[in-house]
Prior knowledge:
Layout: H1 2-7, H2 18-46, H3 53-82, H4 99-102, H5 108-116, H6 122-125, H7 130-138
Amino acid sequence: MDADKNDNPPLPEALGSAEYRARLTTKLNCLIAVLEVAIAKISKSMDLPGANEERLVKIRSNLENTLSICHRAKQTLDRTASASRTPGDRGGEKSSMSARDYVELSSIDEYRKFRSMEPIAKEELSQVDFDDLARRLAEL
Length: 140
């Protein structure tokens, strides 16, 4: 489809376009809003009599982890908008997770895994189908 080509131009050149970054930012903001609503609904459901608390805690944890990833992607997109870098250049930034980040993860092993990972790269943003992800999360 021609519309898909316009919506998903090749990266990293596309991130130089303010219009494309704005569309991505809008999609990310919508996804973040969907996640926040889903988390709130799960939290309310946990207070209901007969709620399967263990299942709801797992779902909420997955939603919160996805929300954290969306915030990281948004930060990366925002940095792209404000910095002019060459492809692959991270501007000397190093992925640094603090102990505060640990509370958002389900285990120390998960914390170690994410701590050793590189920040989300510009190229990875092009591989995310935000519309499909938002649709799937809304179905939870």
